[in-house]
Amino acid sequence: MQFLWPQLLWLLLVLPVLAAAYFYVLARRRKAALLYASLTLPRAALGPRQWLRRHVPPLLFLLSLGTALLACARPSATITLPADTITLVLAMDVSRSMEATDVSPTRLAAAQQAATNLVTGLPANVRLGIVSFAATASVVLAPTDNRQDMLEAIERFQLQRGTATGSGLIEALAVLFPDDGIDLEAVLFGDTSELMENQGRSLDEATAAEAARNREKRARREERPAAQPGSYRHGAVILLSDGRRTTGPDPVIAARMAAERGVRVYTVGFGSPEGGTAGGPAMSYYMQLDEPALRAVAKITGGEYFHAGSAADLSHVYRQLSTRFALERRETEIGALFAAVAVLLLMAASVLSILWFRR
User: Fold this and answer.
1) Taking the model in full, what pTM does it have?
2) Taking the domain 85-183+226-309, which CATH number applies?
3) What pLDDT, on a 0 to 100 scale, did the predictor assign at position 283?
4) Which one, of 246, 86, 259, lies nearest residue 166 by Cα?
5) Strand order in the sheet with 235-241
């Protein structure tokens, strides 16, 4: 538990002062009790139960005051709550290596079945978008809560050559942030629109236009400062890959783009640890997971890396992630709870004082 205003905890020093004052008053009353000819008479009248009762209301009052002072310091705690509506983007590797048979019947068929299980088990608060990547990346399904559309999109996966893991992640970010102007082609080839605008301009005009664009880019970055990795609560990316990058941007660079937006990327390495072979008898090729790259992407973004060596493993990973998206651990202020406890303690002290001592 943490306190948003910890400086107010100094007020708790009032409690021992009040306790000392209470014992001082009791000591004064003992001196007055010496006026009796014998102390056995008042003690017999009080009895051990009555002696205990006299201290209960003051103790409850002291606890009530202490709880109220803690509430003033605005305590907060990490608690698990139902998550808000989130958008999940599944980035699926559809490179030719997915036809390997080290996962029965093939990696692609097993991945499709696991993705189908993921869809059927998705919480109601999750919208799903799907991106496929091979030599490049493309959007298979825009984010939706229609389960049938998700299942049909998964069935449409087609194997292609190449593995552009970074492109898949960048395209997933473009789906998650459609208003950010994330353009995969601009990342790959540069902004060709600037070249078109500079055609027919003098060198001074082109330089001035470039300076204006740079000022505009800096202004956009200042308007939206980089977020803490993992702080974005409205969406996440699940990236599945079974091989090494052969083309496209470095996935670590794409991971930094995700981290700047606070997006967690959960990476899944699919396939047997020793790798597998694919292709016909005329041309067979070998592929193996690039676990260091997938681990790095997960670490940079505050996500987590999973290895799935079989269809059952992959379905288990998806079930784990589905549960995380249904519930969310969130730092929540609980000062109101402390205030309510303080009121209840104060009411209990007042009621007992009235019932037992008529005051």
Assistant:
1) 0.64
2) 3.40.50.410
3) 45
4) 246
5) 137-144, 126-133, 86-93, 235-241, 264-270, 305-308
